[in-house]
Amino acid sequence: xxxxxxxxxxxxxxxxxxxxxxxxxxxxxxxxxxxxxxxxxxxxxxxxxxxxxxxxxxxxxxxxxxxxxxxxxxxxxxxxxxxxxxxxxxxxxxxxxxxxxxxxxxxxxxxxxxxxxxxxxxxxxxxxxxxxxxxxxxxxxxxxxxxxxxxxxxxxxxxxxxxxxxxxxxxxxxxxxxxxxxxxxxxxxxxxxxxxxxxxxxxxxxxxxxxxxxxxxxxxxxxxxxxxx
Length: 229
Prior knowledge:
mainly beta; Porin; eight-stranded antiparallel beta barrel; 2 helices
């Protein structure tokens, strides 16, 4: 993970400084969790997700992107298709704050300084880090706080489509799965080692969560020089 961070910083530092166009805006949508508690539907938003994002367009085909998103993750065994989970009857709700940074690639040129309506599919990936409180399920099956919090690193994998709706506004719809390097989000693996007997589920499979929604960004900045790309 430290090597990935160094590579991303190096990419930022190695780019020549030229006039650019920027985007700043909001994200609004929903979240759903995929793990050891609740349903395992890949795209099934059940909690509100809100955030903000910033883009630095380095060419008509790629942009550096950073975001912050606030949401709750919810899992309820009663909504699962697995009879064993339904019988177990666990449920949880976890508030998270996600910070993400990486690169967005468009399938086609998306130059906002050319006239007319334009649109393109895009992919985004990079690094995410999520702050969350730690919980576990006690011997009675109660969702219990450990009174600590942790940072969960992950990889966002986002597919979307964007189009300009005016000279300065860009609207996009996207679905983004987050693969995390932790199995603690749903309380199936307690953070404290002495609570290891309370672990359950597939401890070899890490947690996922998905954000689905819309972004609306405002573009500003001088006409860029893309001659170096």
